[in-house]
Design brief:
The complex is a heterodimer of chains A (574) and B (163). Chain A is of the alpha/beta class. Chain A has 21 helices and 22 strands. Classes of the chains: A alpha/beta (574), B alpha+beta (163). Chains A and B meet through strand 6 of A and helix 1 and helix 2 of B.
């Protein structure tokens, strides 16, 4: 067997795992690993400007292609800088492996230079973590890390390696296992057939059914069979923020997003349904509103790979624990064999009721001003110019909701945002990661002037790697969502949510980093500017679009109410 | 409702902190906790007592099961079970009290395992409420120090928690 140092083992194991790209930043505790990296050519390393961005890039990479993202960072601040990125991935079930250096084993616990207990600090936000105790266990631990990160409900795994375990002078036999088995970790491979049959029975007897799908359909690669099943049954489909794209957003059966900023028709249909089939979503507080008033007449069927997601917030009538793809494939087969189908008359009546809600056109907005740009129109223009085919990443806030509501995602893996943790600063590095995963794709980052400044240093990384991210900055000169809440619930007192006079000149900033930039202030130039932006195939473009600073996101659920209680504009409510 | 939950898990560094971390992170309470390796040194058996609504207990068992190092979880209170806790109580004992304390210890089937001029150390095993009753019987004013192991338990009958 070949003799390798721990550092060489890390690099070899990554390439044996099929890893093509690692996002990282060097430092003392990982110098041995970086030297081994230098001497190989299988794994590409992307030098970032901040470790948080490395974690978001790995995350964006994983979300865009489904393969695990890999991060390499040094001990202490390098490791802790990745935490927000790890927590983001954890909340949204993204497969990631984060390799961090640590101080030498004999210094651990001594408060040594750049020492942190990374396993301890990251514990609440990882699926699992490992501290390497001997060099020989590096390959098998890396294998276990990828296995855990990518199976079951995916998530981030931290592997912390003390510096002495990567010493180039200590060589050990290297062997990378084909597969690993852990007696304490057995992700469920199949849903219970009895439960699947029961769920189907309930669905076939439903008069007002609705499918409520989430990120689990995307992560579980079940989009295709989900669409097939939904079309067979012919019932309305709504999706969480995380699930957008799993069902085509421009399809007639799709009611749009549900929840806090969900569409009127989606939230109304949820409230009045008699059977809610929740697939790969977790009924979180941004969807349910007050759980006591949630869908009062519905039988809840809940499919999820993670049993803790079932009955966590809302009591479940028919739980199915299993992988979405397998369970839905089984359901389709059973449905096709079964004589019993859903009653068409009741379904037709249900659709009629839904069309009534739909005709309310809840996403309509005031287009009368010929000059002031509405943020919604920025996303609509983006949709038109990219013909609905771009990978869109977003940051967090009003622009995120506009990007979710006004861009009709047709494919899974097309919409990338931090839904669970709500991490500002996520969108730009995630877009970069997506470009590494899909180099030929058109990637747009819909952001705001608040969020973009949280990881703007990565403009430098984009220059280094020639990444043609299109930054669509919806600039309302304020922390828009904070301001909206302050308008609605705090008497319009804009506490620390505006900074109008201190915004940078983003165009010059982009140019300083060697990119292109353009400011757009009038509605009449929006379309042309957007087209110009996407015509620059190989360049990063920063499109700084000044929009109406007073706009709010609607619909918006009324806190404490049921799904159907919504503000539809500043003055109208249900 | 009070529950006794038994966990079989890998005997690995960091496994215990994951269990404890889970409880603080999700705002569950732990009343007692006891852990030691089993006859198979690669496994640890952890017993904890907690309380909460039906819904919270269901989440606790599911969340415990989700931890990568946890192999099996059993809520002992769901069925017939045996519950034991060990207590060592250092009790002030002088003059006439000495005989009284000895008698009380006998009634509770405790043993006196250390004797001094003015104190006894009483060793007592049983369910937690029996240990509480002993402290009550002796009277808090005489108790100098109490050490309790936390609850251990096992299911009655043939049911076992193993690999």
């Amino acid at each position: 067997m070949e003799l390798l140092s721990g550092a060489e083992m890390v690099m070899r194991a990554l390439s044996d795992e099929g890893v093509e790209v690692v996002f990282g930043y060097p430092g003392g505790a990982v110098l041995h690993i970086y030297d081994a990296l230098f001497q190989q050519d299988k794994v590409r390393h992307i030098l970032v400007r901040h470790e948080q961005a490395a974690a978001h890039m790995a995350d964006g990479y994983a979300r865009a292609c489904g393969r695990p993202g890999v991060v390499l960072a040094t001990s202490g601040p390098g490791a802790t800088n990745t935490i927000t990125g790890i927590a983001t991935a954890y909340m949204d079930s993204v497969p990631m492996v984060i390799i961090t250096g640590n101080v030498a084993s004999d210094l651990i616990g001594n408060d040594a230079f750049q020492e942190t207990d990374m396993v301890g600090v990251s514990r609440p936000v990882v699926k699992h973590s490992f501290l390497i105790r001997s060099t020989e266990e590096i390959p098998s631990t890396i294998k276990k890390g990828f296995y855990i990160a990518t199976t079951g409900r995916p998530g981030p795994v931290v592997i912390d390696i003390p510096k002495d375990k990567t010493d180039p002078n200590d060589k050990y036999p290297y062997y990378y296992p084909e597969a690993v088995k852990l007696r304490s970790y057995n992700p469920v491979a199949r849903g219970h057939l009895g439960q699947i049959k029961k769920a189907l029975e309930v669905l076939m007897n439903a008069k007002r059914p609705i499918f409520y799908s989430g990120g689990g359909i995307i992560r579980g690669q079940a989009s295709e069979v989900f669409v097939e099943f939904a079309r067979l049954v012919g019932c309305p489909v709504t999706s969480t923020l995380m699930g957008l794209g799993a069902y085509p957003g421009d399809d007639q059966q799709f009611l749009g997003m549900l929840g806090m900023h969900g569409t009127y028709e989606a939230n109304m249909a949820m409230h009045y349904s008699d059977v809610v089939f929740c697939l790969g979503a977790r009924l979180d507080d941004r969807v349910t509103n007050n759980t006591e008033k949630f869908c009062p007449n519905a039988t809840l069927v809940h499919l999820d790979i993670d049993p803790t997601s079932i009955a966590k917030t809302v009591a479940c009538d028919i739980p199915i624990v299993g992988p979405a793809k397998q369970v839905l494939t089984e359901m389709v087969a059973l449905y096709l064999k079964s004589e019993k189908k859903i009653k068409q008359e009741s379904l037709a009546a249900w659709w009629e009721q839904i069309q009534g809600w739909r005709s309310r056109d809840c996403l309509a907005y005031d287009k009368s001003d010929p000059v002031v740009i509405k943020p919604q129109s920025v996303v609509e223009t983006l949709y038109e110019v990219t013909q609905g085919e771009a990978i869109v990443t977003s940051d967090v806030g009003q622009h995120q909701m506009f990007a979710a509501l006004y861009y009709k995602y047709r494919h899974p893996l097309q919409w990338i945002n931090s839904g669970g943790l709500g991490t500002m600063g996520f969108g730009f590095p995630a877009a970069m990661g997506a470009l590494f995963a899909c180099p030929d794709a058109t990637v747009a980052c819909v952001t705001g002037e608040g969020s973009i400044q949280m990881n703007i240093q990565e403009l430098s990384t984009c220059l280094q790697w020639g990444l043609p991210v299109k930054i669509i900055n919806i600039n309302n000169q304020a922390l828009g969502m904070v301001k909206q809440w302050q308008d609605m619930q705090y008497g319009g007192r804009h506490s620390e949510s505006t900074y109008k006079d201190s915004l940078p000149n983003f165009v010059k900033l982009a140019e300083a980093y060697g990119h292109l930039g353009r400011v757009v202030r009038e509605a009449s130039e929006l379309r042309e500017a957007m087209q110009w932006c996407f015509d620059q195939r190989d360049r990063l473009v920063f499109l700084d679009v000044y929009v109406d600073p007073h706009e709010h996101v609607y619909p918006m659920q009324i806190k404490g109410g049921s799904m159907r209680d919504m503000w539809l504009s500043k003055t109208e409510r249900t | 409702m009070r529950r006794i939950i038994s966990v079989l898990m890998e005997n690995e560094a960091g496994a215990l902190s994951r269990v404890v971390g889970l409880f603080s992170q999700r705002n569950y309470n732990i009343e007692t906790l006891t852990v030691a390796p089993t006859e198979d040194a690669t496994l640890s058996r952890l017993t904890l007592t907690t309380s909460g609504t039906e819904k919270v207990i269901e989440q606790i068992t599911k969340q415990l099961n989700k931890l990568v190092e946890v192999i099996r979880v059993l809520d002992l209170t769901e069925g017939p079970h045996i519950e034991r806790e060990l207590m060592l109580a250092k009790v002030r004992a002088s003059g006439a009290q000495r005989a009284e304390i000895k008698r009380t210890a006998d009634i509770f089937r405790g043993q006196i395992v250390d004797v001094g001029a003015n104190f006894y150390v009483v060793q007592l095993t049983g369910a937690s409420d029996k240990l509480d009753a002993f402290i009550e019987a002796i009277g808090k004013t005489l108790i100098l120090e109490v050490v309790r192991s936390g609850v251990s338990g096992v299911a009655r009958g043939e049911k076992v928690l193993s690999l």
